[in-house]
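Pilot study result, target chain (332 residues):
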Amino acid sequence: MMRFLTALAAALIWSALAAAPASAGDKVVLMLNWYVYGEHAPFYYGKAKGIYAAENIDLEIQEGRGSAATTQAVAAKTADFGYVDVPTMMRAAVKGAPVIATGVLLQTSPMSAMGFVEKNIRKPEDIKGKTVAITPADSMTQIWPLFLKKTGLKESDFNTVAGDGQTKLNAVINGQADLLLGYVMDQSMKIKDATGKDVYPIKFADYGINMVSSGIIANADYVKANADLVRRFMSATTKAVEAAEKDPKGAAQAILDANPKGGKIETLTQGFELTIPLYRTGETKGKRPFQVTDQNMTDTVNLMVEYGGLDAKAKENPKAFYTNDYLPKGNS
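Predicted structure:
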């Protein structure tokens, strides 16, 4: 009887263990810079393909309402990580926000002046006599004077109309403006979704404006307290980006699988494909994603101080804004 009861107890324990769910991974919240668009595909792809789960991470992706708002959420620890415009994060950090970039993904600026292909505006000289739609005080409008200086344009060479982000889009869509200032993989796709027409961007980076854009940020205290988790998150995110680069349409589809109202597969795919070339500079060609150079970050800080409203004290220690210490090593 004792042997029977012992065997029965063992069987019940085994059954309970077999029925129990696998231990959950570490819960991590990643807040995006904005509503989902093609640039965000690697995060959704990494989650769908189990890349984060393989690092024992249970990832929740939340849409954002602008890089400044996401930076505030990370500073307040209401989000563990943020995907934001790094120069925007710098403005907050230099004022005391406890945030740091743990990886810079877009190392070439996506800023551009864009208009419909049919208008044949292909170079800065073609902007003369045209109307440009801007959003006052946004990141692109702050760098716009540097683009004019680099290309020999004057503000008197063209007309300007101003409005918020949607008003700017509508101005081009409705023909009230010939161009707008926007990101090559964002506003261009919104215009195409609305009109079905292709857009041509005159890229700031093609005219010597070398500065970083989007990256992963975290609360500095969170990083110190969770070093292993930060390494695992950056490892998974690096692998997710590398996998998505090889399967742009699959990565875009991962967005729609998670959010069926997240856009159209064609423009999500195209938007992501336009993002991939921004991951590396000549100096980081061949390296794995996120491995930004000190020179690129220093150049960015210098440009932001001169043109982007960043406090001059930021130039004292550009390395205070970022770290590569939590990234996986090696080349692509």
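One observation from the pilot: The longest strand covers residues 26-31. A full batch analysis is planned for the follow-on phase.
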